[in-house]
Design brief:
There is one protein chain. The protein starts with a helix and ends with a helix. A hairpin with a 2-residue loop joins strand 17 and strand 18. It is an alpha+beta fold. Strands 11, 12, 16, 17, 18, 19, 20, 21, 22 and 23 form a ten-stranded mixed sheet that branches. Strands 5-4-7-2-10-13 form a six-stranded antiparallel sheet. Helices cover 16% and strands 36% of the residues.
């Protein structure tokens, strides 16, 4: 699809946001301040972060065969789209990390299997992500803007040749789900007592149409971020009132926990890469908005708990608030860009093989949408890291479109 065709389709929709919702911009705090020994004023995430925004609309399809159905979607933020309560894709962190004010990708999904004659519903949830989250080295927010927004167009072709269209506008309702906040660096908080079934019922508040640039829209280039693999717990032990879990490998990802948390009880997951000299858990990454903590508030029922709009760099996790933790109830989810394998090397020397494995793990952990320097603290697309690592990366993976996408943003920002 050409850029012109894509823009024409997307102009059927309007950029929508929640009424009066603006991301709070963090107060200035520079490297000079940090090296001078100054400390930023701490305010809890609950008092300064807003919940991800949910948008919803009911619509009806006539009693005809659905020949084809395509959803076009993008956002100022990162999003998941739903049809009839089902995610339209297993893609994570769409629309990827790009120079949003100059180059914003649109994702295209085949959604025909999710639709049926009669009443249907379309929803999208948008979190701060790289657009508005606290992603700067010094924990600053709103890098590209202080207002989350969504833009989507659903086209359904019926058997009589009719093209049925649903596009984002003020007819969508807006509200919040179970998410208290979600930030790529800080982490995520979910309250399972809250409106977790918003996509079934919608909201009473209507979305607000806001300004948005259609000229920066581009088709998706390169592979998306996905769940790559799962790691079992290698060791679990008690430390004071907490459980410590060792997954045996530093990854970019998050934890998936299956548990029945009593109503109102708070379970907190803290992530770190190493233990201290005594073998105790300690936070090895410090700095403003670098918490790497996920929080879940129970509703008395069993759920599979996993954050949706954040990831962490870690090997170990400390969990407080659980009365028991069977090894089968927890696993680590490795995430990264779904790059095709192009080469591998194995030898008869275990130490060299371990080195090769380390290289591949570093590649996985530093290709979450863009090439980064590390999966925990900075996570920035510094050009020097990729310049040095590119030949090795290209041996192990097909990096062409991934690199092109990133370099488009680098060029845009010159």
């Amino acid at each position: 699809m050409s850029i012109t065709q894509l823009k024409k389709i997307m102009q059927q929709g309007k950029w929508i946001s929640r009424q009066g919702q603006f991301v709070q911009e963090e107060p200035p705090f520079s490297l000079a301040d940090m090296f001078a020994g100054k400390k930023p004023v701490f305010v809890s995430p609950e008092k300064r972060l807003l919940p991800p925004q949910c948008f919803h609309r009911f619509f009806s399809l006539p009693e005809q065969e659905i020949v084809a159905a395509t959803l076009y979607a993008t956002a100022h933020g990162v999003y998941h789209a739903y049809i009839n309560g089902e995610k339209v894709s297993d893609t994570l962190f769409a629309p990827d990390f790009t120079a949003y004010d100059k180059y914003l990708q649109v994702q295209v999904y085949d959604v025909a299997p999710l639709l049926h004659s009669g009443e249907n519903n379309l929803g999208i949830i948008v979190a701060d992500g790289w657009y508005a989250g606290r992603i700067s080295v010094m924990g600053g927010s709103a890098q590209f803007g202080n207002r989350l927004a969504a833009l989507l167009v659903l086209e359904v072709e019926l058997s009589d040749g009719t093209l049925f269209t649903v596009a984002s506008d003020e007819c969508f309702t807006a509200g919040r789900g179970r998410y208290e906040y979600a930030d790529i660096q800080i982490g995520e908080k979910q309250d399972w007592r809250q409106n977790r079934d918003w996509f079934k019922y919608g909201f009473t508040e209507h979305a607000e149409v806001v300004e948005g640039d259609y000229q920066v829209l581009r088709p998706q280039l390169g592979e998306p971020v996905k769940k790559l693999q799962y790691l079992k717990a290698q060791k679990i032990w008690r430390e004071d009132e907490a459980y410590i879990v060792d997954f045996g490998q530093v990854i970019a990802g998050r934890v998936q926990l299956t548990a029945a948390i009593p109503e109102g009880r708070v379970v907190t997951l803290e992530h770190t890469e190493v233990l201290n000299e005594a073998g105790k858990f300690f936070v090895n990454i410090i700095g403003r908005n670098k918490e790497q903590q996920d929080v879940f508030i129970g509703d008395g029922q069993q759920h599979m708990l996993e954050p949706e709009f954040t990831f962490h760099g870690f090997r170990y996790v400390r969990i407080t608030g659980l009365s028991q933790l069977p090894p089968t109830a927890i696993q680590a989810v490795v995430i990264g860009t779904a790059l095709a394998e192009t080469g591998y090397l194995r030898t008869d020397n275990p130490q060299i093989n371990r080195l090769l494995q380390n290289i591949e793990w570093s590649l996985k952990g530093n290709t979450v949408s863009i090439p980064t320097d590390c999966p925990q603290r900075e996570r920035m697309g510094w050009t020097g890291d990729m310049q040095i690592f590119a030949p090795t990366a290209c041996f192990f993976r097909n990096m062409e479109d991934f690199a092109r996408r990133w370099l488009c943003s680098v060029r845009c920002d010159q």
